[in-house]
Amino acid sequence: QAQLVESGGGLVQAGGSLRLSCAASGRTFSSYAMGWFRQAPGKEREFVAVISASGDNTDYAESVKGRFTISRDNAKNTLYLQMNSLKPEDTAVYYCAADPLLRRVFRMACAYWGQGTQVAVSS
Predict the structure, then answer these.
(1) β-sheet bridge partners, residue 98
(2) How far is CA 11 from CA 33, 74, 82, 118, in A?
(3) Contact 54, 83 (CB under 8 A)
(4) 115 phi, psi to nearest 5 deg
(5) Helix, strand or coil, per DSSP, at residue 115
(6) Residue 31 CB contacts under 8 Å (≥ 6 apart), including other chains
(7) CA 2 distance to own-chain centroid
(8) What SS3 state is found at 94?
(9) Where would I find the H helices in 9-121?
(10) What residues contact 89, with CB distance under 8 A and at least 6 apart?
(11) Contact present, 35 and 105 (Cβ < 8 Å)
């Protein structure tokens, strides 16, 4: 059974950094586009970043551009999100997801989702 498991969340001060990982198992996701999403308390889930299957193409939400970097290691079946210059408004549960179609990742209509990892940024 295919599974995505996020890790690396935690509590950090504003201006700090965290690196999230999303380990895939049960199948190879090297042909899948993958993305990161987040949901803050009382808010809807929102798109954060997306990466194509090959890793050649990426895109980001305006709120994280220049601070977050999405990457993947297909040999390790793992997705990453490097988060720098964190702000209190980045506090949320972060989810990774995967889908064969890039456009479905943008639409948050992914076939596979992880359970999420909590990121808390203190001011």
Answers:
(1) 34, 112
(2) 28, 28, 15, 8
(3) no
(4) -90, -15
(5) coil
(6) 53, 100
(7) 17
(8) strand
(9) 102-106
(10) 40, 63, 121
(11) yes
Please give the single-letter amino acid code of residue 91.
T
Series of mean pLDDT values for 10-residue runs along the chain (123 residues)? 95 98 93 97 96 96 98 97 98 97 94 97 96
For the chain, what is the mean pLDDT? 96
d(CA 10, CA 33): 26
Report angle CA 6, 11, 16 to the nearest 5 degrees. 100
Amino acid identity, residue 15?
A: G
The helix (run of H) or strand (run of E) holding residue 75 is none
CA–CA gap between residue 32 and residue 54 (Å, rounded): 9
Are 34 and 97 in contact by the 8 Å Cβ rule? The answer is yes
Long-range contacts of 25-28 (CB under 8 A, 24+ apart): 25/77, 26/1, 26/2, 27/2, 28/74, 28/77
Tokens of 13: 């001060």
